[in-house]
Amino acid sequence: MNNGVNFNESWLTEENFNLPAIKKRAGELGKRRSVKKSYQAAWLFRAVTCIDLTTLSGDDTRSNVQRLCHKAVRPVRDDIVRYFGMQTKGIKVGAVCVYPNRVAECKEILKSLNADTSIKIASVATGFPAGQTPLSCRLEEIRRAVADGATEIDIVINRTYALNGEWEKVFEEVKEMKIACGNAHMKTILATGELGSMTNIYKASMTCMMAGADFIKTSTGKESVNAILPVALVMVRAIRHYYQKTGIKVGFKPAGGIRTAKDSLTWLSLMKEELGDEWVNNEMFRLGASSLLGDIERQLFHCAYGRYAAAHELALA
Amino acid sequence: MSASAANLVERIFDEMSYGPAPEDPKNAFAWLDEHDRKFGHFIDGKWYKPEGREYVFSKNPANGEKLAETMQGADEDVEYAVGCARKAFQTWSTLPNHIRARHLYSFARHVQKHQRLLSVIESLDNGKPIRETRDADVPLIVRHLYHYAGWAQLKDVEMKNWKPIGVIGAIVPWNFPLMLLTWKIAPALAMGNTVVLKPASYTRLTALLLAEIAKEAGIPDGVFNVVTGNGRFGSKLASHDDVDKVAFTGSTEVGQLLRKLTAGTGKKISLELGGKSPVVVFESADLDSAVEGIVDAIWFNQGQVCSAGSRIFVQETVYDTFLKRLKERLSHWRVGDSLDKAVDMGALVDESQLTTIRKYVQTAIDEGGEVFQPDIKLPETGLFYPPTLITNVQTASTVFLEEIFGPVAVLLPFRTAKEAVSLANNTKFGLAASVWTEKTSLNLEVALLIKAGAVWINCHNMFDAAAGFGGYRQSGYGRDGGKEGLYEYAKPSWETRCRPVVTENVSEFGKPVPGLPKLPTAADSTKNPKIDRTYKLFYSGGQKRPDGQYSRPVYTKSGQMIAQVSDSNRKDVREAVEAAQKALPGWSKRAAHNRAQIIYYLAENLELRRNEFSEMLQQLTGVSEKDALLQVDKSIERLFYWSAYADKYGGTVQETLLYGATVKIHEPVGLIAISCPDEEPLLSFISLLAPAVVRGNVVVMAASDKFPIPAIDLVQVLETSDVPAGVVNVLTGNKDHITKYLAEHQNVEAMWYFGGALGSKFVEYESAVNLKRTWVNYGKERNWSNDEQGAGEEFLYHTTQVKNIWIPMGDIFAN
Question: Mind telling me the catalytic residues of A?
Answer without folding.
Answer: 217, 253
